[in-house]
Design goal:
Largest sheet: none
Number of domains: 1
Strand content: under 5%
Distance between the termini: 33 Å
Shape: globular
Helix content: over 70%
Number of strands: 0
Structural class: mainly alpha
Number of helices: 13
Radius of gyration: 19 Å
Length: 308
């Protein structure tokens, strides 16, 4: 079992990078879908590219995954986490974004924080809820709710819009559960762990895509570039950072990135796709940041003391 979470300035930098990266992912997914890639093959290609890249890096490093021989329970957990952290949520998000806006897909990721706090309270030592964390969580959630009301629930007119919204929220549930299980694994090499999880995800995703959608399509060069980008940046690179954050700072701290994702998904949508910028964005962003600050006040206080 791992030691208590250690939150450092690098932890804050990593979740900031993850917030921007994942906030822009939904726009890239829409580009791929518009280019003719069906959702399950989009998910499969994304995780397969990422697994190949991380596999090469891990092979070059030549480091073992676990310091000790893993138990059957550890292997079982790896398979479950591999599915919950890539195959299932990637497929759900890609399928859901056929019927909902990228704004909703981004905002739905804030549900990870809602799910992960009570789960961690009962399963992870040192992650118990207290009054300050609860107040911060509620304030941050109000900010997310304002953001949702401003843009995300604008109807797309799709027949499957309700099902698409449910799919996005279920993807958030997958990320929350995988974060909790990830924290409970024994000590492991972070690059090796990220690689193995992606490899498992690819092994699961490809046959599912083939069974649901048939043989893979032949995309245009532009769409190929989009798929490679999805595999390299928000999947391989971000998955490695995610593993580092969860293993070092804990799943509750990692969940803070999901408060950033809705803001960045709306901001980048406005800047890149010309989507309307909600008037309530500044208020929502302020509330989210206040909620984050309150829930992690102790960590912020320690960081300020170290910087003196």
């Amino acid at each position: 079992m791992n030691t208590s979470p250690q939150i450092t300035p690098m932890s804050w930098l990593m979740i900031a990078i993850l917030g921007v990266t994942w906030g822009g992912t939904f726009l890239v997914i829409e580009v791929a879908l518009a280019g003719g890639i069906p959702p399950f093959w989009l998910a499969a290609s994304r995780v397969t590219f990422a697994a190949a890249i991380m596999g090469v890096i891990w092979q070059v490093m030549g480091r073992p995954l676990f310091a000790e021989k893993p138990s059957r329970g550890n292997i079982r957990d790896l398979v479950i986490i591999g599915g919950l952290s890539s195959t299932v949520p990637f497929s759900l998000l890609a399928w859901g974004q056929q019927s909902v806006s990228s704004g909703f897909a981004g905002v739905s990721m804030a549900a990870v924080a809602l799910i992960i706090l009570p789960l961690a309270h009962f399963t992870i030592p040192g992650e118990q809820m207290n009054l300050r964390k609860t107040i911060g969580f509620v304030i941050g959630f109000i900010g997310v709710a304002i953001l949702i009301g401003a843009q995300a629930f604008t109807s797309t007119g799709s027949t499957f819009e309700t099902a698409g919204r449910i799919a996005c929220v279920l993807a958030a549930c997958c990320y929350a559960l995988s974060s909790i299980l990830l924290r409970r694994l024994p000590a492991a090499h972070p690059i090796g762990l990220a690689t193995v999880l992606l490899l498992i995800g690819a092994v699961l995703a490809v046959p599912i895509a083939w069974a649901v959608e048939g043989p893979p399509p032949l995309p245009s060069p532009t769409v190929w570039a989009v798929l490679v980008f999805l595999g390299v940046v928000p999947t391989a690179g971000a998955n490695f950072l995610r593993v580092l954050v969860v293993r070092s700072a804990g799943p509750v701290f990692m969940s803070l990135v999901n408060y950033q994702v809705p803001v960045w998904s709306v901001v980048l949508g406005a800047l890149i796709l010309g989507e309307a910028l909600p008037n309530s964005l500044v208020l929502a962003m302020t509330l989210i940041l206040i909620g984050v600050g309150l829930s992690q006040y102790g960590a912020l206080q320690r960081l300020f003391k170290r910087s003196r």
